[in-house]
Amino acid sequence: MKRLICDYKYKRKKFLAPKLARLIAEVLSQAGICQPEAIVPVPLFWWRELVRGFNQMALVGLYLEQFTGIPLFNNVLAKHRQTISQTNLTGSERKKNVRGSFSVRHDRLIKDRYLLLIDDVYTTGATTEEAVRCLKKAGAKAVTVVTVARSAD
User: What pTM value is reported for the model?
Assistant: First the structure.
């Protein structure tokens, strides 16, 4: 799974996006969670997205929207501050690194809605916790987080 995600993100193997979206769709169908009203991908800072050439989770979100019929709200959550790579940081360093790095655009779109936040890898939860905090502060009723993989770290 680690190699698959790294190939997708860093080697731009975009053909893997529908496969990753299928994995998430299967988890959703098996988990029996409340049907989300919108999919929100964890965003990248604009510079990182420019360098990488795409936002990997926004692309997965497009396929997930097709597979599930749940609308994708791609530009609701924004990463407005560059953060350093989380790869070699401890849990507390990760939380500090991402604190305050997200903002909500168009909060009227998420007010009182059940959202599905999608990300590629869950390690300590710092990124998803900060994104959820931001979405709830902007009025989301509830946020369910689904990731493609969980890190063994």
Answer: 0.91
